[in-house]
Amino acid sequence: MAAQTNQSHLLIIEDDQGRKEFTLDRPVYSIGRDKNCDIRLVSQFVSRRHATLVRLPREDSSHRYYYRIVDGDAKGKPSSNGIMVNGRKMLSHDLKNDDEVVFGPQVRAIYYLLRDTMRAGQTDSSEYDITLISPGMTEEMED
User: What value does the CA radius of gyration of the chain take, rounded to a whole number of Å?
Assistant: First the structure.
């Protein structure tokens, strides 16, 4: 049977307010301190419109896509301090699983590409019939 791979894109943000998770599914996200940003960062060290996430199709025409992070706003105005991806200052970067993006002191994001492989015709994990046994049940069976 052929396997089908579904992908989920997840961005974990850590800023002055703690940790937040964002499931990415839209074509464009604005990231920054501005209250109108799609992904808001809480820190005085972050620009109002610090970065932009753009969804792009994969070249293999498999109906899958990836995200590119670009420094600055959607109009091309760069942020004040830039972005660092995996420890290197970048203007843009095609995100890969486990990439770390630093926007400023104590403000970072980690990108995860989650893959869920299912065989054709399989709708869930019902293929595996698992019976859970509590510790008390085994003692009763031994009597």
Answer: 21
